[in-house]
Amino acid sequence: MNRPTPKHKAPKLSFPLLDGSTWNLEEQQPENFTLLVFYRGLHCPLCKKYLVELEDLLEDFNKKGVKVVAVSMDDEKRARLSRKDWGLKDLRVGYNLDLETAKNWGLYISKGIKEGEPDVFSEPGLFLIDKNAEIYYAAINSNPWGRPYLPSFVKAVDFITESGYPARGEML
Question: Which of 115, 133, 162, 165 has its CA 20 to 30 A from that of 8?
C-alpha cells in the first residue's frame, strides 16, 4: 500500500461539506498550509474531544494562514449529528469519504465491532499540506488514541514559516 509522502503531491481529495459546498484539495489556496483531519465518525468519543479542541484552535490556525477541514466516512446524517452533538459551529466538516479515497490516503480501515459503529470506517489521520498541495507532515493512526497534539501545530507553523524548515520523511 502506498501512502502520502512528504515533498510529494497529495492524493486527490474531494468531498461534500455540511454547508452544502464541495471541498476539493486542488482548489485550496491557503496562505501557508491546509490542515486536513480524518476522523472516525459520530461513534467515536475521542474524535469528539479532538474535533472540539480543533474548533477551539481555529482562530489561531486562521491567523497563521492555515485552512482547516475535517472529514469522515460518515454519511450526511451522522456528520450533522456530530456537528450538533459536539457543538461544532465553525469547523468545516465533510462527509461521505469513500473507501477507495481513504485507502489512497493510507488510512487504516476498521470493521464495526459494536452497536453504533458503521460497518466500515477509517481510522484517524492528520495531514499538513503546503500551498503547492504537497504533503508536509503526515500522521496516520490505527486506533483512535495517540493522535498528534493540536496546539503543537499552531506553534510549528511559525517555526516552519520563519525558518524555512523543510518537510521531512520524503524517502520511501
Answer: 162
pLDDT tens-digit series, residues 14-52: 999 999 999 999 999 999 999 999 999 999 999 999 999
Phi/psi of residue 69, each to 5°?
-150, 150
**What does the buried/exposed string (b/e) look like for 52-88 if buried means 16 or more CB atoms within 10 Å of the residue's CB?**
eebbebbeebeebebbbbbbbbbeeebbeebbeebeb
- Looking from the CA of 16 toward its CB, the CA atoms found within 13 Å total 13
Say how far apart CA 158 and CA 31 lie, in whole Å.
13
| pTM, entire model | 0.97
C-alpha cell at position 152: 503543537
What does the DSSP 8-state code read for residue 134? B
H/E stretch holding 51 reads helix 45-56
Per-residue pLDDT tens digits for 77-110: 999 999 999 999 999 999 999 999 999 999 999 9
